[in-house]
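[Discussion] Sanity-checking designs against the backbone

I'm trying to build intuition for which residues belong where. Below is a structure token string of 206 positions. I'd appreciate it if someone posts a full sequence so I can compare it with mine line by line.
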């Protein structure tokens, strides 16, 4: 009976995590779109990323024209993740799609934070440690979602590197869980966000 109650409580804690993720997405999604609608986004970087993604969707790989002396975004950053992101423009060809995608990916980073914290505390089975086992992971989720630097990255235009923390956290969790296929997938996604991201993944390997 006690085990069943703990399982039910565990589901409630997980629901709480997803409620926080949804709340973050709704708030920051609306905020970033409102900033764009109020002409508070810039040609650097939302403008040139939007142009590179739009051109990729139309068959011109990462082409751009709004940086003097450059005809391709690869001249500034190596961000292969922009290629699959360009598929989004088949659904909604609008820079606001990038802003909402960025917010959604950042919000989802709270889930691996919860899984990592839960995994670390899960070995403690005594009743006294139950609160730490369930509530402490939720505290880490709140710390992640309320982290000012992450929020600042979220509201400042669109940057592919802002997606990297979520991918890295998933990679770290799957490394701990020894689920190598998923670890490899999220490690690759992390490295695709910016030219220096492979160094971070390399340090994780070491």
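Best answer:
Here's mine. Compare freely.
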């Amino acid at each position: 009976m006690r085990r069943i109650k703990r399982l039910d409580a565990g589901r409630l804690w997980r629901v709480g995590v997803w409620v926080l993720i949804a709340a973050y997405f709704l708030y920051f999604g609306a905020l970033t779109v409102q900033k764009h609608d109020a002409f508070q986004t810039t040609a650097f970087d939302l403008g040139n990323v939007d142009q590179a993604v739009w051109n990729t969707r139309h068959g011109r790989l990462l082409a751009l024209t709004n940086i003097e002396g450059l005809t391709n975004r690869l001249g500034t950053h190596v961000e292969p993740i922009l290629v699959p992101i360009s598929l989004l423009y088949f659904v909604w060809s609008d820079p606001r799609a990038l802003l909402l995608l960025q917010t959604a990916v950042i919000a989802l980073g709270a889930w691996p934070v919860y899984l990592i914290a839960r995994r670390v505390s899960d070995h403690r089975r005594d009743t006294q440690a139950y609160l730490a086992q369930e509530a402490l992971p939720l505290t880490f989720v709140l710390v992640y979602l309320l982290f000012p630097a992450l929020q600042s990255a979220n509201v400042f235009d669109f940057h592919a590197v802002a997606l990297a923390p979520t991918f890295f956290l998933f990679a770290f969790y799957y490394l701990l869980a020894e689920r190598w296929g998923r670890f490899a997938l999220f490690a690759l996604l992390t490295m695709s966000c910016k030219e220096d991201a492979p160094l971070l993944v390399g340090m994780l390997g070491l």
